[in-house]
Write a structure and sequence with these properties.
Distance between the termini: 43 Å
Order of helices and strands: EHHHEHEEEEEEHE
CATH topology of one domain: Cathepsin B, Chain A
CATH superfamily of one domain: Cysteine proteinases
Strand content: 15-25%
Structural class: alpha+beta
Largest sheet: 7 strands, antiparallel
Number of strands: 9
Helix content: 10-25%
CATH class of one domain: Alpha Beta
Length: about 260
C-alpha cells in the first residue's frame, strides 16, 4: 500500500528490634520468727511472656525489564513496495533481507495463498487500489506471510495479541518486528467480517504493514516503504490495536523476559 507522508522518528533493609524489658527484681525475703515453720509455696502463676521482636517486612525488589529503555536497529534498510496492495510482501522482503535471506518480491507475492479471508490468504487483486475491505481487494494478515517466509527458509511466526513490551524485547535483541497498522500509523475502525465459509475475523480499511526498528520511553520508530518515522507510543498503540496487535516475528529465538 502506498506510503503516506508523515513526520518521522539494594535496597537496604531497616530492621527494628523491640527493646526487651529488664528483669523485674524479685522481692526480698521476709525473715520469719524461728518458731514459725518455713512454708515454701509453689508459684502457680505462669511466668511473664516477653514480647517478641517484630520483624521488619521484607521488601521485594521491583523486577527490571530485560531490555534497555532505548534501542534502535540501525542496520536495516528498505524499499518502496512494487504492488499497490503489496505492503505485506514488501515489508517481508526487507525483513528477511535484514536476516540475510534474499527473496524476489514478485515471486513471494504469488506464493501467498489466495482466499476471501485475510487470515488464510491474500484477498483480491494485488494491483487494485488501496483502502477497501473484504470481500473486495484488501491484502493479507500475519499468518500467511509468516508461512511463506518460513517456506523460504526464514523462520517466522504470525501472532495476534502481542504487547508493546514484547516488541521492545524483540527489537532490543536486534530482531525487527513486522506490525499491522492503519495507514502510516493512523487511526482506523475495526470491522467484523465473515468469509464465505462462515469464519469471522477483524478487518479495517487502509490496512497497512510497517517494520518496528526502535523505541525510547515515549516513542516508537518504524520503517514504512524504506523511510523512517517516529510516533508517540499512544499513537502507535491506537493504530496497531485496530487489527488486534498483529505481528510477524522471527521464530526459534528465545525472547528476553523480565528478571526478578
Amino acid at each position: 500500500m502506498p506510503a503516506v507522508t508523515n513526520s518521522p522518528d539494594s535496597q537496604s533493609e531497616t530492621r527494628e528490634t523491640a527493646l526487651l524489658p529488664s528483669d523485674t527484681p524479685l522481692p526480698e525475703s521476709t525473715q520469719l520468727p524461728s518458731s514459725t515453720p518455713l512454708v515454701v509455696e509453689e508459684n502457680t502463676q505462669p511466668a511473664p511472656t516477653l514480647p517478641a521482636s517484630t520483624p521488619t517486612p521484607t521488601i521485594s525488589p521491583t523486577p527490571e525489564p530485560a531490555f534497555p529503555d532505548e534501542y534502535y536497529i540501525r542496520t536495516i534498510s528498505g524499499h518502496r513496495q512494487f504492488f499497490p496492495l503489496g505492503c505485506e510482501t514488501s515489508a517481508a522482503i526487507d525483513w528477511a533481507t535484514y536476516f540475510g535471506v534474499i527473496i524476489n518480491e514478485y515471486e513471494f507475492q504469488f506464493k501467498i495463498p489466495v482466499s476471501d479471508n485475510p487470515d488464510l490468504g491474500f484477498v483480491g487483486n494485488v494491483r487494485d487500489p488501496w483502502g477497501q475491505t473484504p470481500p473486495y481487494s484488501y491484502g493479507v494478515h500475519a499468518g500467511p506471510i509468516a508461512q511463506v517466509l518460513t517456506n523460504y527458509g526464514m523462520p517466522a511466526k504470525g501472532i495476534k495479541g502481542y504487547t508493546l513490551e514484547e516488541i521492545k524485547a524483540e527489537v532490543a535483541a536486534d530482531r525487527p518486528v513486522i506490525a499491522w497498522v492503519i495507514g502510516n500509523v493512523e487511526g482506523g475502525v475495526p470491522a467484523e467480517y465473515t468469509d464465505s465459509q462462515g469464519n469471522t475475523t477483524i478487518v479495517a480499511a487502509y490496512e497497512h504493514v510497517i517494520i518496528v526498528t526502535g523505541y525510547n520511553p515515549d516513542h516508537i520508530r518504524y520503517m514504512n516503504n524504506g523511510r523512517f518515522y517516529e510516533v508517540p507510543n499512544d499513537i502507535f498503540l491506537n493504530s496497531w490495536g485496530v487489527l488486534g496487535n498483529m505481528v510477524v516475528i522471527k521464530a526459534g529465538d528465545p525472547v528476553p523476559t523480565p528478571t526478578p
